[in-house]
Amino acid sequence: MANFSTAVGGFSSRTRDISSSMKQFEPCTLQQRIIMAIQYQVMQVQDYIESSVRAFFCLAGITGNFWLGVRSLPKSASQLRSTDVLFINLALSNLITNCMVDLPDTLGQFLNSWIISKDYCGVLQFSSELSETSSIFTTMFISLYWHQKLVGSVRRGGAPVQLDNLRIVLKLLAGSWIVSLMFSVPHFFIAEHDGNETLEVCEEQFPTPAEKRTFDALYLILANVAPLVGISYASFQIVLTLLRSQKRIKDHSNAAQKSQVRPNATSGNQVRAAKSVVAVASIFIACWFTHLVLRIYSGFKNSILAVKLTNFVGATYTCFVPYVYLHGVKKLNCSCC
Prior knowledge:
- Keywords: G-protein coupled receptor, Membrane, Receptor, Transducer, Transmembrane, Transmembrane helix.
- Its main location: membrane.
- This protein has ten helices and three strands; from the N terminus they run βααααααββαααα.
- By secondary structure, it is mainly alpha-helical.
- The protein has one domain (6-328): Up-down Bundle (Rhopdopsin 7-helix transmembrane proteins), CATH 1.20.1070.10.
- Strands 1-3-2 form a three-stranded antiparallel sheet.
């Protein structure tokens, strides 16, 4: 869900417009002065609320992704598993957005100032595209991994699966970073600042409309649709497997109670983790669909509201996803406590 265009410094843009209009058109009556003052205060409150929400998402995202990375670190290299590598990679991908995009934007909003340049826009959009593309692919790999683990637990008695092989996982992640770089590096050359002092927006300026359509189509197919198909397939199969397993448990509940058979703890942990994968997939699909609609809308009409909503959708995903995964693998608490 890469940002098609990124708005920065939004905290002061609207209030600056109001204040400038107040200077240009001095009200003649006391009533007009009061109305203008109220409008100015309302705009300030709205901008403060918007910035506070953005700051909350930024802080929660940094905390959650950092915690996901730390809790996924094994005690020794010999204990490193595929899930650890996938979660660490997801945390790293999301932290790039949190620290390189969301944090500077949030600080700029509260400080009521920001330095805008072509170089900054290039770094901003490069970081955003790199992080979000890598995050999408990692989410797909995690979904496929837990689909294999759950199906293997049910059908093959918990036998090792392909994605238990660290070499395969590392190769997949390396390929995803290569694809992410392919779509991110061009932003250093197409990023532009609109040059408007009251509308601080980083935009993408392609040489020709045809090149823009080609780039967008390739990114949509390779970095969005393909991972979405994988995530949807894995999640659908996980749901089917969970439903079948639940049905079998209900059918044999009386027999299990009579024989006093204890449930397999490993199987229960896998089911819990698989449910968290389905929850993340649901969040991802909702965010992806909303982002796609906003991106199509932005293609027809430049809208600051659409840009802000796009940023909000991306921040929502990177904020909540690490906590869902941590809850699923029972690592949300502190092991030292």
